[in-house]
Amino acid sequence: MDKISQYLNRHYLKVRPDTPSDVKKVRCHLCQDQGIIIKGDLAYQCHCVKQRSVMKRFASANMTPFLAHHTFDQFDLAFYSPHLRLDKDGPTYRAMAEKAVEGAKKFVAQYLEEKTGQGILLNGAVGSGKTFLAGAIANALLEHDKQVLFLVVPDFLDDIRGTYQKQGEFSEADLMNAARNTEVLILDDLGAHNYSEWTQNKIFSLINYRMNHGLPCVITTNLTIEEMNEVIGERTVSRIIEICKIYRMHVEVDIRVAMRKW
């Protein structure tokens, strides 16, 4: 297994490989899928050729067992209390989880039908099922041969930073372009990082690009909207709110801890 595949396996990245029918659907506005751009007497390779190479490498990574078994059928509402609430007049934990699952399924259905750019944000405490639900979305789309990229945000940012210290086959631009242009991008654990101006700019660039090109994001975060404003910046949060429907998830006990007690 090559180094990029090892990295992708280790960090839970996965895309569906292109099929012949998928390839026919690819449309690069720069080269019209020819792979070469001609200007006068000059001809040079289009950046989409390198991007497709990156995506094919991504496709060689297997979905980890941890994520591969995350499906809507396996999502267990029993972990969510039908009585507890975040506030007196608010919905119960169970009702919030039911709404999140319904929203996730609706996102998949709408994307399969319309390829809508509207995404979803799953917000809640550690162990509340956000990553499980994001994995269920990924698997549902992959079953229909859609291209999905599942990124654990802190690991992805660390890997981009790592390209500065060593010369590898892929550059920062290669990794960013793959994330920008995949059909559906899943950003897991947004905010779980020591954010600096550099990391804020990378996340803004990624979110802003996908918003401008009508490409959906599925985002999970432990942070509230107010905390996200502080950590990743108000301009990024503003765009996330514009392109994502927000669902809150909450549990009394971390589901991972609860499962270990069984």
Automatic annotation (TrEMBL):
Q: Which SUPFAM superfamilies match?
A: P-loop containing nucleoside triphosphate hydrolases
What is this protein called in UniProt?
Answer: ATP-binding protein
- Keywords recorded for this protein, A-Z: ATP-binding, Nucleotide-binding
An example of a GO molecular function for this protein is: ATP binding
CDD domains hit by this protein: AAA
Where is the AAA+ ATPase domain positioned along the sequence? 116-248
List the source organism: Dehalobacterium formicoaceticum
Please name the PANTHER family in this protein's record: ATP-BINDING PROTEIN RV3427C IN INSERTION SEQUENCE-RELATED, CHROMOSOMAL REPLICATION INITIATOR PROTEIN DNAA
